[in-house]
Write a structure and sequence with these properties.
single chain, about 300 residues, alpha/beta, Rossmann fold, Alpha-Beta Plaits, 2 domains, 6-stranded mixed sheet, 4-stranded antiparallel sheet, 10 helices
């Protein structure tokens, strides 16, 4: 798979000395959906703004489609569509004229058929003659996406695309993103919603304190870093874990009615069979048993906590 965006040792230091980006290196594959996760102030928006030419880097380089964003700015920028976090639209302008204008900004010839196709894909065609002030917040976000797609970019940056929208509209947006990917658009989105990354991303990047902690295939990340837990529910509550089970590092939950055992999914032996035998030998009666996988949210929280610990 070829790389459409290549970021090398990207740095951004503001006048006061604050380092927003600390040598970020990242390759983005053509046709993928990459989700960038990170807390507020992590550097997500600064990274996007720098790649898009809104913010000037203090060091490093960025190439989009082989074009340097500094030396070949127009060519590089023409390949990029940006949907910003903030909704900033002219309230009295019509939807269709707003999208047409965005296409013209990139020197593209007028193409009413293309604009119609974009608006229909985003369920905006019926609203094409509406003034923007008449639209809901969710529809305005769709207009932002339409504006970003008007010049047919190959790379689309979505900065917190579903912030402040309800759950139903968020899922509609996920479907829209999936359709754009199917059309060959490479998508990079920043998000606070872990479930968003789990639902639609091919790869997940975690950024904290201006540093890229990791970038991994989503499923590989879950396998490599995720652990499983088995919860053994007991018929009678315990006040303490029996000495015979001390070697398993069990956790007592549910008012003493549940023993929780964590194990590595990659290990040759999970130890579950031995555990259950020892539980029976200790005279404990099992009522039920269930397992669960560590979530991406837990992995994310652990990584950010580690970064903050290192910074301290």
């Amino acid at each position: 798979m070829s790389d459409i965006v290549e970021i090398r040792d990207l740095r951004k230091t503001y006048a006061g000395g604050f380092e927003a980006l600390k040598g970020v290196t990242l390759n983005i594959h053509e046709g993928e959906i990459l989700a960038l996760l990170g807390p507020n102030g992590a550097g997500k928006t600064t990274l996007i703004s720098t790649v898009c030419g809104i913010t000037q880097a203090s060091g490093g380089s960025v190439h989009v489609g082989g074009f340097d964003i500094l030396e070949e700015f127009r060519a590089a920028r023409s390949m990029i569509g940006l949907v910003p976090q903030e909704i900033a639209l002219e309230p009295f302008e019509k939807v269709i004229s707003t999208v047409r204008f965005s296409r013209g900004l990139f020197g593209k010839p007028r193409d009413d058929a293309r604009i119609e196709a974009i608006l229909k894909k985003l369920s905006l065609w019926d609203k094409r003659d509406n003034q923007l002030k008449e639209l809901s917040g969710g529809m305005k976000r769709r207009v932002l996406i339409a504006k970003a797609l008007a010049h047919d970019p190959r790379v689309l940056f979505l900065d917190e695309p579903t912030a402040g929208v309800d759950v139903e509209l968020r899922r509609d947006m996920w479907e829209t993103v999936a359709e754009l990917k199917a059309d060959g658009v490479t998508i990079i989105l920043t998000t606070h919603y872990i479930e968003e990354a789990e639902a639609i991303a091919d790869r997940v990047g975690v950024i904290a304190k201006g540093e890229l902690m990791l970038v991994e295939d989503k499923d590989d990340l879950m396998r490599q870093m995720g652990k499983k837990q088995i919860e053994v529910q007991l018929s009678e509550p315990l006040t303490a874990i029996p000495e015979a089970l001390a070697s398993y590092a069990l956790e007592l939950r549910g008012d003493g009615c549940a023993l929780v055992y964590s194990y590595d999914t990659r290990a040759e032996r999970t130890g579950i069979t031995t555990l259950l035998n020892d539980v029976a030998a200790a005279g404990l009666v099992l009522r039920d048993m269930q397992t669960r996988q560590t979530s991406l949210e837990e992995i994310f929280v652990d990584l950010v906590a580690a970064a903050e610990g290192d910074a301290a």
